[in-house]
Structures are given as C-alpha cells and as structure tokens.
Amino acid sequence: MQIHVINPNTTASMTAAIGRAADACAAPGTVIRVVQPSFGAPSIEGHHDDVWAAAGVTEQVQAGVVAGADAFVIACFGDPGLAAARELSPGPVIGIAEAAFHCASLLATGFSVVTTLSRTCVIAEHLVVQYGFERRCRGIHGTDIAVLELDDPASDAYARILASARTALAHDRSGAIVLGCAGMADLCRRLQAELGVPVIDGVAAAVKLAESLVSLGLRTSKHGDYAAPLPKAYAGLAAPFSPRTSP
Ligand code: 2AL
Predict the structure, then answer these.
(1) Which residue in 19, 99, 104, 115 could disulfide with 176, CB within 3.0 to 4.6 Å?
(2) How many degrees, rounded to 5, is the angle at CA 52 between CA 47 and CA 239?
C-alpha cells in the first residue's frame, strides 16, 4: 500500500524529518511517499499560513490521486485542507490532530495538548470542538516554541515541551499528552519515557490509522459532502486547481 504523507509547509528539512517518523512506524509492505507543496509558508503558525497550507494540501492530493496513493496523511497539527482533501481522494485522508485525539481518547479519559506558539492554541481549540472532543481535551498549552526551532538540534525545545507537559499533567486532570506539531515527532518516545504517560505523535498515529483503514478495505464516503468537487473552472491563481472529473 502507498501512503502519501503531506507536510503542508515548504521546509524541506522538516519534510524529511516527517518522512523518517512515518517510515519508522510503517508496516512492512507500506510505502511512504513524503511530499510538500510547491508553494506556501515555511511553517504553519496562524490562520493566514493555514489558508495557504490548505491550498498546498489540495495540490498534493490531486497529484497523489493521479500517482495511485491509497491514503493520505496531512502532517500539520491544524489539519489544513482536511475536508477538501477528502472530497478529492477516494482513499482515506487522515489529519494528525484528529488521529492524535482519537488515539489519546482510547488510552485515557482526558488528554492535554502541548503545542508550539500560543497563538496556534486557538486553531487546536477549534479542531477539538469541530471533531467533538470537548469532553476529552482538558487543556491546550502553548510553549512559544516556533515550528522551525523544533528543526534545530541546538534549541532547548525538548526541555520546554517536557516542562509544559508536566504542568499539563499536574493541572489538567489528563492522562495523556498529545504533541501539537508534526515537528515534535522525534521527541515522542523520550517524552513518554520521562513522563510515564502515553504521549501521542500525530504523524505515527495518522500513518497507523491510514494503514488500518486501507487494510480494512475502507475508503472515504462519497455519499454526501465528501463527494468529488463539482467540475468547474476556477479563476486566476486558482485555475490550475480547477476540479475536472470525478476520481
Ligand atoms: C504545525 C505543524 O504541525 N507544522 C507546522 O508547520 N505547524 N503546527 C503548529 N501547531 O505549529
């Protein structure tokens, strides 16, 4: 099976790190193809970045469908473009935030999210409500670590994330930690060992859920709003993204 893992930002080193995290958890027989959009922001840290990331995701899903992807993972914690990607793809599309919320809820009655800049907390908060996890998510903690700091081995990001997770566990009545950025994937095991509670990296969670759904023969429902977008000619900058024929 072929899973396309989309890093919605344009930082190649982060795309490579996400690819390593996906490869590390993929089952034998799963081929991971890690891709990034041809345009957009170097990191997704706000609503404006998010809009361009969503468009970039649709670019990569359109290309991936043609290339024969069985499933897609959107490897950014805002799950940019998730619903649009599900319209475009016959196979499952899994966002790392939604995947992590589901996995955390199977392991603890409540979870806390530890994320990057405080300004991104509201994006996670909106997703919690949209996905119906209000009763499970007990707190969302910004660390004020910029996404690309996570890419820098010399930064003190690990220590700050660990401290924030300890605060969350002490005050939120939560039993698990969800990591709120794809760039935190390689910190997951070490954090879990030190914290002694389940720590969920959405990239691994999404890859394993995508594999499971494909193995079960399950695909995105095309009955209703995830039906293929109606064919029409988009104008200007959006013209190359015009939906043509149903997949
Ligand atoms: C992210 C993420 O996962 N990738 C990115 O560029 N921004 N999330 C976040 N909360 O900052």
Answers:
(1) 104
(2) 140
